Amino acid sequence: MYTITTNELYNLLIEHDLLKDTAIPSVNKNTVFRYLSYDSRDIQENTLFFCKGMNFKEALLADAVEKGVTHYVSEVSYNVTAEAILVKDIRETMAIVAQAFYRQPQNSLYKIGITGTKGKTTTAYFIKKIFDDAFDAKVALFSSEETTLDGTTFTASKLTTPEALDLYKQMATAVEAGVTHLVMEVSSQAYKTKRVHHLTFETGIFLNISPDHISPIEHATFEEYFTCKQQLLLNSKQMIINHESDHYAELQEICETHAIPYYTFGKAGSDYYIEEMDNPRQFQLTGHPDTLHVDGEYQLAQFGTFNHDNAAAAILTAGLAKISTASIQKSLPTSHVPGRMNLLEKANGAYFFVDYAHNYLSIKAMGDLARDLRPNGRVIIVTGSAGDKAQSRRPDIGRALAECADVAIITSDDPGFEEPEMIAKEILATLDNSAVEIHVELDRSKAVTLAFSMAQSEDTVILAGKGTEQMMKVHGKEIYYEGDFHITQRLIQENLL
Predict the structure, then answer these.
(1) H and E: helices and strands count for the chain
(2) Beta 471-474 vs 477-480: how paired, if at all?
(3) pLDDT tens digits, residue range 286-296?
(4) What average pLDDT does the chain have?
(5) What is the longest distance spanned by two Cα atoms in the chain?
(6) Where are the alpha helices (DSSP H) in 297-456?
C-alpha cells in the first residue's frame, strides 16, 4: 500500500538538504521500497533499512543485508553489498522519509502534544475521554502507558514517544481506521532524538518542569532537558501552559517572541483560575475572561489537587476544540487512568495508593495529598529508582521522602544492569539526619508486604514507581513480578479471611 522509489527518496533528501552527495547514482534509481525498518529482526521484502544510533553495529546491517536488504540509509558507509544512501542526519532523515512514505498522515489528524515532568499520562487520558465522548471514540492515544490506533483497542507502549518510523506508521494506521484526533505524550528524548522532527501540533500543552532524566544516556544537564521540552512550544500552533510551572517566564517569552497564541491555568494571574472546593475531587475553573467558554465546576474520579492542574489543561484543550462545558463535566468523572492513583483500602481503613510516581515532583505531590487526606496518620512511602538512567532522580527522591514521609521503605524498581544496593544508597544519602523512619528491603514483594503489615487505620501508604506493572527489568530481561497493585489486593483479601 505504501511505497517510495529510490528516485523519490533522493529527491526528498535533496529537498530537505539531508543528502551528503547530491549526485544521484545512475543505477537502481527506480527501486521500489515497500517497507521501512531500523531493526534487523524486522525485515520484509523490499525493505529500506536505516542505520540509527550512536552505537550502531555493522553486524546488524550485515544481518539485514543477508535477509534481502539492497539499500540502506546511514551517516557513514559500511563494507556490505547493499547500496549506501548517505545522509547528514539519520534522525531527521527517518522523520522526513517516514512522513513521505506514509503519505503525510499527520495532516489528517488533529494532534494534541503534551509535555512536562509529571502529569503527561493523566492529562492524556483525561483528554482522550473527553474527546472520545465528543467524537464517538475516534481518538488515538500514544502514551507511556498504552497505545490505541483505532480509539478502542489498546496495547502496551514501548516508548513514551515512538521512534519516527513507528510514529508515522501508527498515525497512518489510525487514519485508515477513521481516527480524526490524536493525543500523544511528547518526551524530551523525542525532541533530542528528533523523533518528532518537522511535526506541528494543533495544540501543545506544557504542564511543568523540574530536573529529571539527567544522565549520560539521556540529558547531560537540566538546561538541555528544558531546551528539549521547549521545542513543543515552537512546534505547536497554540499552547496551554501551567502558569505555576517553574521557569514560566521563559515559556511566556518564547510564545510572545514567536507570536504563538497561549492560554494559562493555575492561580491568581492566570487566564483560567483553579479554585479548590470542600470535596478534594472537585474544583471550580474561572476564566478572565472566559474566551473558551469552559467556566464551571468539575469533578474527578481521582484525588489530589495536582490532578486539578491536569484536568484544567484537558478542559482548556477541549474548549479550543469547541467541546461544550456540559460534555466535559459529564466525561471527567468517568475518566480512569491505569496505574495512576489507584486506591485500595485495608480492612482497618488504611489507604493504599498505587502510582507510577518516580521523581521529586510526583512523589512530593503524592505525599502532600496523603498528608491532607489523613492529617492524623502516617505517610508510608515504598519507592526505589530505575537503573541505567536518570541518576539525578535518586537524590531528588530522597529529598521528597525527607519532606513528606514518616516512613520510607527503599526497594528495587527496574534496576537494569545496576546493583539495587547502590541505587538505594544514592537515595538514602539525601535522607541523612532526617526524621524519617527508614527501612531497606530490596525484594519489592517483601517491601510491599512490610508496608501492608505496618499500616494502621489512619495511615496512607504510597506504592510509588511501578503502578500496575507486573514485571521487573533486571540485567536486560523482564522478570515476572506480581505487582504492587496485585500484591496489595491479595493481602487485603487474605486479611479479610
Answers:
(1) 15, 25
(2) antiparallel
(3) 999 999 999 99
(4) 92
(5) 79
(6) 305-320, 325-331, 360-373, 393-404, 420-429, 444-454
CA torsion through residues 396, 437, 464, 241, sign = negative
Question: In which element (H, E) is residue 382 found?
Answer: strand 379-383
Bridge partners for 424 per DSSP: none
Report if pTM > 0.90.
no
Beta bridge partners of 342: 354
Q: 3-state DSSP call for residue 72?
A: strand
The residues facing 407 across adjacent strands are 380, 437
Could you give the CA distance from residue 416 to residue 18 in angstroms, rounded to a whole number?
A: 36
Q: Which whole-number Å values give the CA distances from 406 to 13, 376, 378, 431, 461, in the listed order?
A: 58, 12, 6, 12, 10
Parallel/antiparallel/unpaired status of strands 35-37 and 47-50: parallel
Query: For residues 337 and 343, what is the distance between their CA atoms, to the nearest angstrom?
Result: 12
Whole-number pLDDT of residue 461: 97
DSSP 276: E
Q: Which residues contact 151 (CB under 8 A, 6 or more apart)?
A: 132, 137, 138, 139, 140, 141, 177, 179
Residue spans of the chain under pLDDT 50: none
How far, CA to CA in Å, does 254 sit from each of 102, 241, 247, 312?
Answer: 32, 12, 11, 22
Residue 484 one-letter amino acid: D
DSSP lists the bridge partners of residue 115 as: 206
CB 355, CB 463: distance < 8 Å: yes
Residues in the chain: 497
Q: What are phi and psi of 172, to 5 degrees?
A: -65, -40
Q: How far apart are CA 246 and CA 188, in angstroms?
A: 16
Please name which of 458, 443, 463, 445 lies closest in space to residue 340, comparing C-alpha atoms.
Answer: 463
CA 343 to each of CA 348, 352, 383: distance values in angstroms, whole numbers, following the listed order: 15, 6, 17
Grid cell listed for 404: 513528606
Q: 3-class DSSP state for residue 16? A: coil
